[in-house]
Amino acid sequence: MSGASVLFQSRIFYGWFVVAAAFAVTFVGFGSAYSFGAFLAALQHDFAASRGSVSVIFSLAGFFYFGLGIITGPLADRWGSRVLAVIGMILVGVGLLAASMARSLAEVYLAYGLGVGLGIGCSYVPTVGAVQRWFVRRRGFASGLAVSGIGVGTLVLPPVAALLIEAVGWRATYVIFGGFALVVGTGMSLMVEDDPRDRGLRPDGDPLPPDEPRLPSAGTSVRQAIRSRRFVGLYAASLIAAFGLFVPFVHLVPYAIDHGVPQSSAVLLVGTIGAGSTAGRFLLGGLADRVGRPLSLVAMFAGMGLAALVWASSTSLWALAVFAGFHGLFYGGYVALAPAVISDYFGGRNAASLIGILYTSVAFGTLIGPSAAGFAFDVSHSYMLPILASACANVVAASITAATSRA
User: Fold this and answer.
1) How far is CA 103 from the centre of its chain?
2) Closest to 255 (Cα-Cα) out of 108, 30, 49, 40
3) Nearest Cα to 41, choosing from 267, 208, 288?
4) Residue by residue, what is the 3-state secondary structure of 200-229?
5) Are 332 and 277 in contact (CB under 8 A)?
6) How far is Cα 124 from Cα 271, in angstroms, rounded to an integer?
7) Distance between CA 121 and CA 360 in Å, rounded?
8) Distance CA 18, CA 121 (A)
9) 390 in any annotated domain
10) How confident is residue 235, by pLDDT bands cut at 50, 70 and 90?
11) Distance (Å, rounded) from C-alpha 332 to C-alpha 397?
């Protein structure tokens, strides 16, 4: 190895390359998934479908990409995260390509719902779990930076999708997105590594003494953790909040259009959620390292509840943009902090397994929430009930998290 290479490695801790890989995986996967609102009108038109039935596509994908973590998390702890990340990105790409050729809404369910859902499910929890093992002192910041790919992807890809759909149609747009996932997502996922000790390091880049025995990472067993008061509280709070968490990703654009906002402007609201989410992951994750991550998680749930109340009283573009920014900010903080809090409570040994189990709660909420909001609109021609239900759910989630955060 050359002297320049040694100097380069000594200056840049490899944990940041793992963070970069996780950023790319989440950017590609969730950016593609959260662009769904831009495709909703075209799919509804071409397949002569109701808003509720088209919304099921997103809910089905969301169920798989959060629910599959209960399987891929333990597999990552046992086999390593890289192989699962690579498989996941391939599945996302193939799913989008298959969706472009769908001849019925049922085929979109299979291609997009299963392909994209399973792909993100394979890659998300393993890569985020790997990041937790590389950091302790700056875990909140590193975790936030890793998952800020979700926010940046949500900021960038929905407007790109809208422009491409207008220019070349939704089918060609899915082809472009699928190719992007295969090339960029798969390539970057090859940088994922699980354990700093493989490079002679401790977490945060501290040197590993050569005579230190190679013991398993410290941490609570999965059985003990899931029986604890803290884990049960986190699970219940995440489950309740998730029923409204992703409703804006599907329904904010049609809501804005229903209130007279031009489609070209309405689709930017999803990007605004992404911008707020990116800020939340960068700013709130680092801030939580200083003020306390469990307390900060309570504030994230409360903030999302207050943001929903802003949505309930908003009809203009600018008011909806304020809602989108604040919802994104606190949602981004939640996504950054939940894995870090799990690792704080229970250690890094089974981090991916426990994060995967926790995210099954989000899976059930995602499966039900956006589709239920769509069907509620089909019946009442109003989104007021699901919006207010989301506000109440987040208040309850904040209360549960605060009550169970103490050991």
Assistant:
1) 29
2) 40
3) 267
4) CECHHHCECCCCCCCCCCCECCHHHHHCCH
5) yes
6) 21
7) 11
8) 18
9) yes
10) very high
11) 16
Q: Strand, helix or coil at 136?
A: coil
Residues 6 or more apart from 182 whose CB is under 8 A from it? Answer: 89, 90, 93, 94
Using DSSP's 3-state secondary structure scheme, residue 383 falls into coil
Amino acid type, 260: G
* Structural domain boundaries enclosing 370: 15-207+218-404
| DSSP-assigned beta bridge partners for residue 108 | none
Q: What mean pLDDT do residues 137-153 have?
A: 82
Q: How many beta carbons lie within 10 A of that of residue 103, not counting itself?
A: 8
Q: Does 286 score more than 80 pLDDT?
A: no
Alpha helices in 101-259 (DSSP H): 105-108, 117-134, 139-168, 170-180, 186-189, 222-226, 229-245, 247-258
Does any domain span residue 10?
Answer: no
Q: How many CB atoms lie within 10 A of CB 16?
A: 16
According to DSSP, the residues that pair with 6 across neighbouring strands are none
Q: What does residue 180 show for φ and ψ, rounded to 5 degrees?
A: -60, -45
- Is residue 386 included in any domain, yes or no? yes
CATH of the domain at 157: 1.20.1250.20
Local confidence band at 172 (pLDDT 50, 70, 90 cut-offs)? very high
> Residue 394 belongs to what H/E stretch?
helix 384-404
Q: Which two tokens stand for residue 340?
A: 């870090």
The maximal CA–CA distance of the chain, rounded, in angstroms, is 69
DSSP letter for 347, please. B
DSSP for residue 199 = G
- Rounded distance, CA 263 to CA 279, Å? 25
**In this structure, are residues 62 and 359 in contact, taking their beta carbons and an 8 Å threshold?**
no
Contact 267, 162 (CB under 8 A): yes
For the chain, what is the domain count? 1
Phi first, then psi, for residue 347 (nearest 5°) are 85, 175
6 in helix, strand or coil?
A: helix
| pLDDT given at position 141 | 80
Residue 4 covered by a domain: no
One-letter amino acid at 342 equals: I
Q: What is the DSSP string of 63-111?
A: HHHHHTHHHHHHHHHHH-HHHHHHHHHHHHHHHHHHHHT-SSHHHHIII
